[in-house]
Write a structure and sequence with these properties.
By secondary structure, this protein is α+β, with helices and mostly antiparallel strands. It has one domain: Alpha-D-Glucose-1,6-Bisphosphate, Chain A, domain 4 (2-Layer Sandwich), CATH 3.30.530.20. It contains four helices and eight strands; from the N terminus they run βααβββββββαα. Strands 1, 2, 3, 4, 5, 6, 7 and 8 form an eight-stranded antiparallel beta sheet that branches. A hairpin with an 8-residue loop joins strand 2 and strand 3. Helix 1 crosses helix 4. The longest helix is centred in the last third of the chain and has 20 residues. The chain starts with a strand and ends in a 7-residue tail after the last helix.
Length: 163
């Protein structure tokens, strides 16, 4: 069994606190992935336990994923970790999805703004799954970059806080 990790970063011209607060809401994190629809968001004051239902439609709707994603680690202005479980429906059949990516958002003050890093980790992949992930890494990288670009746009286009 092997792990597969992708990591991408972007600079956001805003204080760390503003970027972190924007990412407190899971809808903002997934805005840049057009195939996903985030619904049923439940946010907790302490962050841990915040959750969202995410529906992904792929292959012109022939494959539909139903994902439950939850914030499992929440360190203000430093880190958010989200884990997920779900199922996929293909050709009228449902099955559980193993090894959904763990997303970690890292926030670091840099040059008067924030360096936001998104790490996607898939653990304990079999050799075939690992090869498939490696082969589709370019497409996955574009999805992660889209997510970061949406967060960047969302933060930079809002009114800055006084914090």
């Amino acid at each position: 069994m092997a792990d597969f990790t992708l990591s991408h970063a972007t600079f956001i011209a805003a204080p760390v606190h503003d970027v972190f607060e924007h990412c407190r809401d899971p809808r903002h994190i997934f805005e840049g992935w057009p195939e996903l629809e985030v619904t049923d968001v439940v946010m907790t004051p302490e962050g841990v336990g915040t959750r969202a239902h995410i529906v992904g439609r792929f292959a012109k709707g022939l494959m539909v994923e139903q994902i439950e994603r939850e914030y499992t680690e929440f360190v203000p202005d430093k880190r958010i970790v989200t884990m997920a479980h779900g199922k996929v429906r293909v050709a009228g059949r449902n099955r559980a999805i193993a090894n959904l990516p763990i997303f970690t958002l890292l926030f670091e003050a840099r040059g008067g703004g924030t360096e936001l890093t998104l790490v996607a980790l898939e653990q304990n992949l079999g050799w075939l799954q690992h090869r498939l992930e490696s082969a589709s890494a370019g497409q996955s990288a574009r999805k992660l970059q889209g997510m970061l670009a949406a967060v960047k746009a969302g933060v930079e286009n809002q009114v800055p806080s006084v914090a």
